[in-house]
Amino acid sequence: MPTVLLPSSAAPFAPRCSPPVVLSSTIEPWLTATLKRVCKAKGPLKNVTQHTKCLKGILSRQSAIWTLCSMMFPMVPQALDVGLQYQTIHIEAYVVYVDMAYANAVAFKLTPETINTLVKFHRDVYSVYAWLSTWEWSEKENQLRNLQEQFIQDVNRFIFYTDALALEGIDEDGAGELLGGRSDVAKAKVKSLFIPLQPPYSEALRVLHGH
After folding, report:
1. Pairing outcome for strands 66-74 and 105-110
2. How many alpha carbons fall within 13 Å on the CB side of residue 5?
3. Element (DSSP H or E) covering residue 86
């Protein structure tokens, strides 16, 4: 995917605003059909300007929150071992950029509510399990603290890119779901944010490997 220059609203901790929409000079038939389906306005959709205004308007609504994927997370650290007490968390985001002229891409940023939910899970469940399931070493506490701080930064700067055809999943209120296997890609991207706590080699292993 070509490099995309994102707007300032896509930056970490930046507030939400109307997403820039850049369309090609040739409008795809699927986009026209999608906008006619979801836009209640009776105005015509005959040129790029009209398509751009309609798409930007519906994506700017407060209700235009997309579900990137739904993931199962344990409710307590012990559940990671026994497979019980899991909860479903919907990973929600909003569109920060649409480029159908140069990159054929749409960019999503996580909602503050989703970010807070993921940060809480990482702190209260994931980190606790990592602490309990690894042996002690001198830098363990510092390493875990660094992982927590890194996660907060990474989840706030997280941007999910997919092809513009994903906009076919939009509803009348501007919300939508990812179709065609895109949610599986989003799920893998979110999972990659959870970096494991890595103990150093034990002294015995250092000797064994000649270090």
Report:
1. unpaired
2. 3
3. strand 86-99
Q: Provide the β-strand partners of residue 71.
A: 89
The bridge status of strand 159-163 relative to strand 105-110 is: antiparallel
Residue with tokens 């939508």: 176
Position 2, amino acid: P
Give the angle subtended at the CA of 76 by the CAs of 118 and 137, to the nearest 5°.
Answer: 85
Query: Closest Cα to residue 160, out of 94, 70, 63?
Result: 94
Token pair of 10 as six digits: 């896509």
Split at pLDDT 50, 70, 90, the class of 165 is: very high
pTM for the whole thing? 0.89
The Cα–Cα gap between 66 and 170 comes to: 8
